[in-house]
Amino acid sequence: MEELLKEIQAIEIKESNFNVLDSNFGKLENTHSDIMVLLLTQKNGFWNLFVDSIKEVIDLTHISNTPKIFREKYKIDILIEDGVNAVIIENKIGASDQNEQLKRYHETLKDKFKKISILYLTPFGTSPSENSKGNLDIKQISYNTHIINWLKTCLKNMQISNNNRLYVSIEMYIELIQKTINKDKYTEEVINTILSKKINERLPDEIQNILNGKNIFLYSDVRARSEKLIYEVIAERYSVDEWIPTTEHPETKEIEIDDDGVKFDLFFEPDCVRAQSGNGSTVDEISGWDITNPYLQYLLTGNRKGIEEWIDRIENKG
Prior knowledge:
5-stranded mixed beta sheet, 12 helices, alpha+beta, single chain
């Protein structure tokens, strides 16, 4: 453990001390929409990379490779169209839907385009309200997964020497998003250092203080390890399928347990792992925000016995 502490203490905060996009910009959804349109209209293939980054959610290959992209046309945050088909991106950061908002947008465009796709963009893939969407097929995408991955792919496909200002601007925008959703490079390096070690004891207070107030389930490697560990423990006891995304929330995954008289569901949500009994009530949960919870530490450190203990706890409560 002393070696781990030394490595973490040696980690430098690599984020720039200055980011022109700091201040309150991160909370302003209009700013994010403006930046996204600016990037999508760059002649660097960014639109095609965006299409590729969300292909697991929706297929947009029917849209032209060079569509027209508008801000606030028909009061829509981002409208993308090629004269035949259209894509609506409704951007929500800390705001609720207006009355029948998505239905009104669709009604406005339905006689103008052959096919209309609607993307609902939020920090973690939240669903629109029933009042807003009605019976429309709305696809949810998130800053945490889709936008950050798209931007990182844009950086990989750029030659920094050819457009250094654009490259640095995208780097700063990624930092802005990460700060907006409470995710930063320093915490990520600390977590990656922990993941690289074999730890069978409680995390020391120094490390807990670093992770305090952070949702560590935001970090994909933590989620991947946690999903794998929980599934392996469950699959040893019951006949179950692997984690599958829920239809209501694409960033939430579910395992159903209904075997030999034992019945409960596990939901891996953006900020917690939640156990739900057969009658729909929450039995127990591991919050990604609470690093003092020993079961969260067990997931972070890969402690199998600790997670077996948590499943025992669920079974006893259920």
